[in-house]
Design a protein that fits this description.
The chain is α+β, with helices and mostly antiparallel strands and 555 residues long. The protein has 18 helices and 13 strands. The strands form four sheets. It has a six-stranded antiparallel β-sheet with strand order 8-13-9-10-11-12. Strands 3-5-4 form a three-stranded mixed β-sheet. The longest helix has 34 residues. The termini are far apart.
């Protein structure tokens, strides 16, 4: 038997993945001396580790991770870093964001906590493991063959440790993603808004001169708009009140529509005048008539409110509709039993004698009610349209020249004559009734003319002035026009007129019936509401040609 040959096998260096030998308890009790680290040492040490969230892996350990595990750990680390940056940025402004930040940090500590628990478990397992007893070899025995690689148990532990780290990092990434998602749309909006605000601030700072110029331009624009607003620009919900303050239709169309409406009034006047011819056979015809008149400015403002830039032909139907609402004519017949004296002759004595014979006395009544154009207009317009209508009335549509022929600047007194400084004779004031009327009338001499005015507070037009004076002295004439006062008064000749009666004129402006009224003072003088309220001679060249008659009111 040949001698066994000694076999020498070159020992290869083992991989350095095995954990270092555990130190004795005495060695562990000795505190380590802390060594000051330079910045270069810290950088070198940091380069030896890869950070995934809160878990540190060495280069050697990272080699045992799969690509999927590395991607999950990188994604978790990026998500955690993004959450920290945004949450730390706004945690002072929002308590909810601060809570989100704390939650994400807690989720990140989970891998480290799992890692520490796993390390404790490994330590317990090592304590339970018994040291391996190597058997003694004889001199002739060959040394036992050992695997040159790392110990299988060590490799298994290392793989498990790496897997646990990867799983913990992936779990932390998922929890962080869920936390970010749970923050909701509101947090995203806040983040975007804050970013936009910072961007806007930087833009404004870098272009300060440009924004100052824009601010000045905006202020000028607001001042311009407020100037229009002071002229009556109004806006509201629903139907908007336009800022328009001028009539938009052509002058020809505006005046044409006004002429058409006056033509309707003229035909109504003619129809009333033909009453005896259209209804013959009555003993008497009585009239109860409101004046037939309207304010052309009201009609034009109304049509402009409804149609803006209208034409004459477009508004014909509306003119007919409004006219029927403004004027209402009614007629009725009154039958009275009256007696007439008939002379009879006695056939015997042949002496005549009177006999009272009853008979029917038939009276035909005609009543005309004028509701007032503006009353009708108010019912036709809603609130916004009414505001716009009032704007046109205040500004006269920017065309005060339109109806100077219809209503002169001095109202129904278009004489243009200055007032006369007149003193009523003392003998005229001996009549107590006239003295009271004159005392009230004299108070307002010099007051400016106001169309439609009927009180000292609003001012007066000619009929409003007369109605006010007489109503204050026990007369019940109400508020009517010059034509209305003519209808209420007893018509007398100029020779019969005395101080305190009324004097009427026609044709002082384009309206049917009586157009002007004044209080007669005697001696051919009157006081009336021109512009202003003044004294005038009724036989001057102007007033003489318009003189229509005299009337006397009764209480």
């Amino acid at each position: 038997m040949s001698d066994p040959k000694l076999k020498f096998k070159e020992e290869t260096p083992r991989s350095k993945t095995r954990s270092p030998p555990k130190k004795s308890m005495a060695e562990q009790a000795v505190p380590k001396k802390k060594k000051l680290k330079l910045d270069a040492d810290k950088a070198a040490e940091k380069a030896q580790h890869l950070r995934f969230g809160k878990a540190d892996l060495t280069v050697e350990e990272s080699r045992h991770l799969s690509k999927a595990q590395k991607r999950e750990m990188y994604a978790a680390a990026l998500a955690q870093a993004a959450v920290h940056r945004e949450a730390d940025r706004y945690e002072e402004d929002n308590v909810g964001v601060q809570a989100l930040n704390e939650g994400s940090k807690t989720a990140e500590r989970l891998p480290a906590l799992g890692k520490s628990r796993y390390a404790q478990k490994l330590k317990k397992q090592k304590k339970l493991q018994k040291p391996v007893q190597r058997p003694e070899r004889n001199a002739g025995e060959e040394p036992p063959q050992h695997d040159t690689g790392s110990h299988p148990l060590s490799r298994t532990k290392q793989r498990r440790r790496n897997q646990h780290r990867a799983q913990a990092a992936a779990q932390a990434g998922k929890q962080t993603a869920r936390a970010v998602q749970s923050a909701g749309v509101a947090e995203k909006v806040k983040t975007l808004t804050a970013s936009a605000a910072q961007g806007s601030t930087a833009l404004i700072k870098s272009n300060a001169h440009l924004f100052v110029a824009l601010g000045v331009l905006a202020v000028l624009l607001l001042l311009l708009l407020s100037g229009f607003s002071s002229c009556g620009v109004l806006f509201s919900g629903g139907t908007q009140v336009s800022g328009q303050v001028f009539y938009t239709a052509e002058d020809e169309d505006i005046r044409g529509a006004e002429q058409d409406y006056k033509e309707l009034e003229r035909k109504l006047q003619q129809k009333i005048a033909r009453t005896p011819l259209d209804n013959p056979g009555y003993h008497e015809y009585q009239y109860h008539l409101d004046p037939i008149q309207h304010d052309p400015w009201q009609l034009t403002s109304f049509l402009t409110t409804l149609y803006d830039d209208y034409t004459r032909s477009e508004v014909q139907a509306k003119l007919q509709e409004v006219f029927k609402k403004q004027y209402k004519r009614t007629t009725w017949v009154e039958v009275q039993i009256r007696y007439k004296t008939v002379w009879m002759v006695d056939p015997i004595t042949m002496i005549p004698y009177p006999v009272q014979i009853p008979y029917e006395y038939r009276i035909f009544h005609t009543k005309l009610e004028n509701k007032g154009l503006e009353t009708v207009i108010r019912g036709e317009l809603n609130e916004d349209q009414w505001k716009r209508y009032k704007i046109f009335q205040d500004t006269l549509g920017g065309r005060p020249y339109l109806f100077n022929g219809g209503l002169p600047p001095g109202g129904s007194d278009s004489s243009g004559e200055a007032g006369i400084d007149y003193q009523v004779p003392a003998e005229a004031l001996t009549d107590s009734e006239f003295a009271a009327i004159y005392k009230e009338a004299q108070k307002y001499v010099g007051t400016p003319y106001v169309w439609g005015g009927s009180t000292p507070k609003t001012g007066f037009d000619c009929s409003g002035y007369v109605c006010w004076v007489y109503n204050q002295n026990g007369y019940n004439v109400g508020r009517t026009t010059a034509e209305g006062l003519w209808q209420k008064s007893q018509h007398i000749r100029e020779a019969e007129a005395k101080p305190g009666d009324l004097v009427f004129f026609e044709g002082t402006y384009d309206t049917p019936g009586k157009s002007h009224v004044g209080i007669y003072l005697g001696n051919g003088m009157m006081v009336s509401a021109g512009d202003p309220i003044k004294y005038a001679n009724i036989h001057s060249s102007y007033w003489q040609k318009h003189l229509a008659g005299f009337g006397r009111l009764s209480k």
